[in-house]
Design a protein that fits this description.
- It is a single chain.
- This protein is mainly alpha-helical.
- β1 and β2 form a beta hairpin.
- α3 runs antiparallel to α4, α3 runs parallel beside α5 and α5 runs antiparallel to α6.
- It is globular.
């Protein structure tokens, strides 16, 4: 869905992009994790009709806890601002952004700048791989960089410096751990 926000913004469908961001913010977990998707769950009650409600889905399967939606959320908020200049949206949703980054940074279990994830954690959820995934860590880097820019706009200078520092550590770790001398490996 967050990839769709980028498209909606390019099409200047700002209301659609904003509604999508608002919906996901509403269902964000307290720990900062964003849902993989939000779907309608329906229940049939005999002859009395069907009831449907929105429900956030946080896992692709019993084994999979997708990580990329949370990084993509931060990136989508930054792109929303770039297109709309809606600084109030950044201000009012800053706590949600902070929770997102906080949840992500906890996935760097060995404190080397790269996230370590379980199986089926990124968009290639039909390929069984885990550990330090290139795609996950590139968008994590980009979300840290975007968060630093958001903090700059909101005059949160120390936060901006901290996020910029984390982004630099992640970028260096991507280069040192996922570059094999000829190309970037997909995972380690």
């Amino acid at each position: 869905g967050f990839w769709g926000v980028f498209g909606a913004l390019e099409l200047r469908d700002f209301d659609q992009a904003r509604h999508h961001l608002d919906l996901f913010i509403k269902y964000q977990r307290r720990n900062g994790q964003m849902p993989l998707r939000i779907e309608f769950l329906t229940h049939t009650f005999g002859y009395h009709g069907i009831r449907a409600r929105l429900a956030p889905i946080f896992r692709a399967s019993i084994l999979a806890r997708p990580v990329d939606p949370t990084s993509l959320f931060v990136m989508a908020v930054w792109q929303y601002y770039r297109h709309t200049k809606d600084k109030q949206f950044l201000k009012s949703n800053f706590p949600s952004l902070e929770r997102s980054i906080s949840w992500l940074t906890k996935l760097d279990r060995d404190s080397d700048g790269l996230l370590e994830v379980g199986i089926l954690a990124d968009w290639m959820d039909s390929i069984i791989k885990w550990g330090k995934l290139l795609h996950i860590n590139i968008i994590y880097y980009k979300s840290l960089d975007n968060m630093a820019k958001i903090c700059d706009l909101l005059a949160r200078d120390q936060d901006a410096k901290n996020y910029r520092g984390l982004a630099q550590i992640t970028l260096e770790a991507i280069r040192s751990q996922l570059w094999n001398g000829h190309y970037f490996v997909d995972w380690r």
